[in-house]
Every structure is written in structure tokens, then in C-alpha cells.
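Data deposition worksheet. Section B asks for the primary sequence of the deposited chain exactly as it was used as input, without tags or linkers unless they were present during the calculation. Section C holds the resulting structure in C-alpha cell form. Section D is free text for depositor observations; keep each observation to a single sentence. Incomplete worksheets are returned to the depositor.
Section A, Depositor: J.P.
Section B:
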Amino acid sequence: MIDKRQVLVVVPARGGSKGVPLKNLKTVHGVSLVALTARLIEALHWVDRAVVSTDHEQIASEAEASGLGAPFRRPAALSGDRIGDRDVLAHALQEMERQDRRRYDVVVMLQPTCPLRRPEHVTATVEKLVREELDAVWTVTPSDLKFHPLKQLKVRDDGRLIYYEPAGAEIIARQQLEPVYHRNGAAYAIARQCLLEQKVLLGQRSGAIVITEDLISIDTLEDFVAVERQLVKAPPRTDA
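Section C:
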């Protein structure tokens, strides 16, 4: 609980990853991504309930063995690769409120694919949400200006090269570009009303926790290697 707000942590971990099959069960230095996430949650002493949302029995077993609850299975309608996180989180929230017979004020999504995040990243995200009474807070990382939206191009069906955004034609120097950010997957904190009433993850009043270090969101086998190298250099702290 933070400032009298009941907090539910949801770890989304479906079994149907296409890029890396059963990615959430793959290991980093011998520990699965699901188990690493569970270890981090243990350091978050303000969490009222933490569960995995999965459609896969092996993932559920791994979660429970690691200290994460797996009190339900995600329905088939929410298990495809084109299902949004909002629907998954709303289902988990409503199911846990039904089972626990209590109301959760804040939902925190911790995707297993960001094993380099630290407890303080998550704590700062939730504290900002509560302190500023926001709809949502996401962790983000500054994007390299080389990849700024106004510098992007696209090739049309007829083969012609054009600016992705017409305003890009006016950009001459980097100084003209406003900073932009991308999600790093460390943490998402969403107020209950944002999830169930606005039905979005990024509400009308949302904020950011900016993290400048490279946290590596795992999508490929090469990402696993990169994470292991990072952990050898600087093992993750577990202090919140």
C-alpha cells in the first residue's frame, strides 16, 4: 500500500511468443525472466498483491515456485499476439477484485522482458502516480535524435522515397528537434479509473519517469546475451 492506495502488480506472461518461443521461461544466468521479476517484486514492500497473467501451465508453475501468485488463467480471447495490454490488465484487475473481495486502486504492470530494471524504478513510478494524482505513469528513455520521427522516411508502393512526416522537410539541424522518448518496459502504473473507465493505459493526465540508462527490453536471443553481459558488469541491486 502507498498512501492508503491498494496496489496490484500484474506480470503479463503469455506462452505464445513467436520471436523467442516461451521467452518468459528462458533464463538469464540460470534464472528465468519470470523468476527474476518475482525476485524484484519481493523487494517492493508496498505491494498488496502480485500475480502472473498467463495462459500457459508451465509459466504458471514457474511463477508460483518463484513466489508469484497464479490464481487464474488468461482466457483464450486474451491470449493472441494482437491483444492489447489494457485488456489483459483489466481482466486481471477485475478477476483479482472478485477473488480477493477487495478493491485495488493502482495496477502496476511489470513485463518479464526488462530484467535490468531495479526496485527504485518501480517505486518512483508508483509514487509519482499517487503523489500527483495522475491517471498513469510510464518509465521511458530518451530516444537518439538520429531516430527522431521527423527524420524518418518511408518508401511508397511506387518506390518513391518520401518523408514519413511532411514536416521533416523543414528540419535542417538537430537543434530544431524536440526531445522524444520511447518505452523501456521497466514499469507502468495505472490508476483503476484510467484502466476501467477511460479504458486506456495512457490517460488524460499521465506522467513519466525518465531513465537514461539502457535497460534492454528483450525481444531476441541476442538481447538475452546483452543482458547477461550487463549483469556481469553490474549485478542488479535489490534495495527498494
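Section D:
Residues 144-178 form one domain.
The longest strand covers residues 181-191.
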